[in-house]
Amino acid sequence: MVAVGSKCRVCKEPAIIDLPRHNAHFCAEHFLELCRRQVVKAIEKFEMLTKDDRILVAVSGGKDSLAVWDLLIDLGYQADGLYIGLGIGEYSDTSAEFARAFAAQRDLHLIEVSLRDQYGYDVPTASKATKRVPCSACGISKRHLFDKAALDGGYTVLVTGHNLDDEAAVLFGNTLRWDVEYLARQLPVLPSRHGFPKKVKPLVRLTEREMAAWCIVRGIDYLVDECPMAVGNKHLAYKEALNAIEQQSPGSKAAFYLNFLENMAPLLVGRSAAATDSLQSCSSCGAPTTGDLCAFCRVVAKASAHEPVPVELVLGKGRGRR
Ligand code: Q46
Ligand code: ZN
Ligand code: ZN
């Protein structure tokens, strides 16, 4: 991760990581401090959280969600975790083990929801039954269950582990299409509205690589493998394109995303239909929706009536837009 002999910018002790976008090297202690500072900066700038909030962290068992949970606890917030069993074969089985082990080792509360046990389907089956790409069926399920768990549990805010690379990649895709509707919604804070909980992304100032390093330094075991359904999707291609640019010009990725938030996002306020849509309650589950039945209940109806589909049958079909 770092050239032999490199010294920490702060204390001049041997460095463990180089961060070209900061044009500096850091020892373990000062690297952790930098991560904490970046999270605090994001939280304060966007008024994401207060110490009185009851926080629910959406946990996948990967590095980002475990790191954000760890960071929030470390910074003195009270936060429980929510793990959703998506039924994506071995990937889901292993990711659940990492999430449970993390919570158990730190005596944290982890809520678990299983699509198969509680709703009678899994993501591969939902994909096939609804003729959607897996990530679209998965996204509808996750969003609904995140909202429901947060509201049912009396949590005031839902946290996700989206990092700078994720957000920059989504921004890149939305910009390539000049999708104003999506661009207007791409903010690190969505206020609570129409029965949706407040949602925040405290890791938007930190990269994937930094979150992997956070986990290694803090001794957090996480699932390294990507979801098999993600293989070949556009989101990964956008990340690679941005990484190539970043390599040539360190700092570009952060500037692309963070300057969007600073300079462009304010110009797009009010351009998202979701901000003005009149929503009604789903006739089946009561969740806010534009139609009679919400997207989740439509997925449940089709997928739970379908015979289970093995994960191999729907591998690598790519994800939908966020
Ligand atoms: S879990 Fe679900 Fe992701 Fe897997 S199926 Fe797609 S959306 S890639 S973050
Ligand atoms: Zn140091
Ligand atoms: Zn519904």
Number of domains: 1
Q: Which ligands occur here?
A: Fe4 H S5, zinc ion
Mean pLDDT value: 93
Q: Under CATH, the topology is which? A: Rossmann fold
Q: Which residues form runs of ≥5 with pLDDT under 50?
A: 318-322
> What percent of residues are in strands?
5-15%
**Could you name the CATH homologous superfamily?**
HUPs
| Class by alpha and beta content | alpha/beta
Number of helices: 13
Strand arrangement within the widest β-sheet reads 5-4-3-6-8-7
Gyration radius, to the nearest Å? 20 Å
Distance between the termini: 32 Å
How would a crystallographer describe the biggest sheet?
Answer: 6 strands, mixed
Q: What is the CATH top level name?
A: Alpha Beta
Helix amount: 40-55%
Shape: globular
Provide a brief overview of the structure.
With 322 residues, the protein is α/β, with parallel strands linked by helices. The chain is built from 13 helices and 10 strands.
